[in-house]
Amino acid sequence: MQSVAMIIFMLAAQLAQPAAPLPEPAPQAVVAAAPAVAKSGTPLRLMVWNEVSTRSAKPGDRFLLVLDSPVTVDGQVVIPRGTKAWGEVVAARSSGMVGRAGKLETRLLHLATPGGEVPITPATVASLADKGAGATLQIVAVTAALTPWGPFTRGNNARLKAGHIVEALLGADVAATPPAP
């Protein structure tokens, strides 16, 4: 009986001791996905924000465009819709007498991304060039020959209307900005 009491006493002593701590699990390596990258040459759809017209524009004037649709790569938004872009008036000739149409030449400058300015180029050469109404001169020439007020008829001013869509291309690679925590 004494041996049974001794065994119970030893078991009680064992149970009273704190259990050995379990080994901590090894930390899981967190692998962050590499940010998506929009490559140079990626098509952009820009919208002219305010009208640019030969009536008031002069060389060196800058105008605002905004990204009309987001640039996504593998389902990740790299450049969000509404990102600002800038263009510049290169030459502006107002309309003239005898139906001379105005001429407006512009160029795209850059896209303002959180990572900095990214150069952009027009997708086609004619996407930002507007030379007024093509048939205006022919119609006015006929009118000038038939009516006394024909030589005093002015041509149309060239313009980029607000809301006009311009197709452009990225001029450099752009990485997606990681979301803020």
Characteristics of this structure?
single chain, 181 residues, alpha+beta, Lipocalin, 6-stranded antiparallel barrel, 12 strands, 14% helix, 34% strand, rod-shaped
Verbal overview:
β8 (103-113) and β9 (116-122) form a beta hairpin. It is built from 2 helices and 12 strands; from the N terminus they run αβββββββββαβββ. Helices cover 14% and strands 34% of the residues. It has helices spanning 2-16, 136-146; strands at 37-38, 43-48, 52-53, 62-67, 71-73, 76-79, 84-93, 103-113, 116-122, 159-160, 165-170, 174-175. 23% of the residues are buried. The protein is rod-shaped and about 125 Å long. It has one domain: Lipocalin (Beta Barrel), CATH 2.40.128. The chain is α+β, with helices and mostly antiparallel strands. The strands form 4 sheets. It has a 6-stranded antiparallel barrel with strand order 2-4-7-8-9-11. Residues 127-154 have low confidence and may be disordered.
Could you give a quick summary of the protein structure above?
This protein has 181 residues and is of the alpha+beta class. Helix content is 14%, strand content 34%. The protein has a 6-stranded antiparallel beta barrel with strand order 2-4-7-8-9-11. A two-stranded antiparallel ribbon has the order 1-12.
How many domains is the backbone divided into? 1
> How many strands, what sense, and barrel or not for the largest sheet?
6 strands, antiparallel, barrel
What's the tally of helices?
2
Low-pLDDT residue spans:
127-154
Number of strands: 12
**What gap, in angstroms, lies between the N and C termini?**
67 Å
Can you list the strand order of the major beta sheet? 2-4-7-8-9-11
- Report the principal-axis shape: rod-shaped
User: Under the CATH scheme, which class?
Assistant: Mainly Beta
Mean pLDDT: 75
Strand content: 25-35%
CATH architectural name: Beta Barrel
Q: Say what the CATH topology is.
A: Lipocalin
Report Rg: 35 Å
What is the H/E order?
HEEEEEEEEEHEEE
Helix content: 10-25%
Task: Specify the structural class.
Answer: alpha+beta
